[in-house]
Input
Amino acid sequence: MKVAILLIALLAMAAAKSTPGRMAARYDNFRIYQLTIDTELQMQELKKIHETISVHFLNDLGAPGHKYNVIVGPLFHRALEKTLKFLEIVYEVIVEDLQKLIDESSVGDDSEMEWESYHTLDTIYDWVDKECAAHDYLECKVIGKSFEGRDIKSIKLSKRSGNKAIFLEGNIHAMEWISSATVTFLLNQLINSEDPEMQRLSEEYDWIVVPMVNPDGFVYTHEVERLWRKNRRPNGFHNVTGDCYGIDMNRNFDFHWGGAGWNIDEPCDHWFGGVEPNTEIEIVSLQNFVSSFEDGYIRSYMAYHAYGQYVLLPYGHSNTEFPPNYDQMKRIAAAFSEAAADVYGSAFTYGASGLLNYPVSGAAKDWAYGVKKIPFTCTVELRDKGTFGFFLPSNQITEVGLEITAGLKALVNKAAEEGLFD
Output
């Protein structure tokens, strides 16, 4: 619980700098450090660093051989750097002033939907409603309500009977604004693009889109705390600062739930997976919606996240267990990666998430594969590799949309070649 206590202290220090009319928590002169962890000893020491220095980990802490980003306030810059040098941990300051970066990726003109700035939930949902009203091949539903009573909306695009379906999921993690921006970009391409290939894909396949799985958390990132990850249900635990809120909903699915993951059992931490699986109304609504379709209809489930530029395949709970059709899934993911890189050079690494990163249990893609038997599922981690991370500037939204559109085209075509839609 010490991690949670010191994290909240860090957030409280940021919030103390709030000004009227602005988001409550501010991060003026907070730095983001990127640490290269080479050894198990360095990893163990990093996991203990919160005992003396207030830090906010932006990544799950897993195995050595990876880079990890941490946020540190101005009072602790010198102490952190001294500690890192003592531990011989190579580091780089990749962001000097986090608040400046947050301002650069904040909501711009929110009067109507476009993909050059980030938008609020109301603007995203208004756009969804207008598109649904304008096209008779779109079926739009409210698949459930969030804990705070907000709609969780779905859009099904179907122009022809007998099609198989592709499912796109967005913003299960509140702070990952590029997720819903990309999912709505893809949906807009399927509806309004004049590109013959996109028109063909919209004719030959059904598309089911849930652009906002976590509306409460998303609104909270806009109004209170930009760094919020979970949903907003009080989870029944508390610490010295008060009640703890939220569950990491991508740790709450009932497939090898609770088996692995950084701090998934810390109720006040970002990655808390709940006291048992399927505790969150948003997740149950999503699962019920997926289960409402006949078996074999949905052939691909893709969850969009930030960041790191990965196509993460099942499984997440293990680095030694792989799906029966893992080689086929890698070929499909490779097609995505190659096509996406052709646009702007963004390289996407692909493979089982437990192998590429570290074991993490209870994710949507693993549930979709392991429980619903959908033959191709993945988590697409969008731009970038850490320079901006969760705070990707809005001037990159369209570029991300274009490279992911190219990757999606190639992925679907390769999946068809592999017989996935037969």
